[in-house]
Design brief:
- The structure is a single chain.
- This protein is mainly α.
- The protein has a domain of 58 residues: Multidrug-efflux Transporter Regulator, Chain: A, Domain 2 (Orthogonal Bundle).
- 74% of the residues lie in helices and 7% in strands.
Amino acid sequence: MSDQRLSFKEMCAEFDVTPRTLRYYEYIELLQPDREGRSRFYGARERARMKLILRGRKFGFSLEEIRQWLLIYEDEGNRAQMETFLEMADRQMKELEIQRSQLDEAMNELSTLRDATKATLQKL
């Protein structure tokens, strides 16, 4: 990853996030950009963290879980972070399986209701 720093606006554009989101991630200490006066600049570390944050959100992890996971690397190193990730991933996979089952059930019920409504409408 290059050592080029991104401005606040460039960071928003690169990761397709709103300024509000980027400020919030900073507020909850997920990101710690360099500051020069009122300007914020994001280096390789912050861009890597942003990739991890967005990936974590995609997989359904809460921001607090992501924050704690990122802190593990700083406090305990890569191995501890990887071990924690395995535990988090296993737990999240179970949760996603439950959600998929609930979604399948809802889709089946909706399909049945739709078909019944369509049949009733055709009789009218």
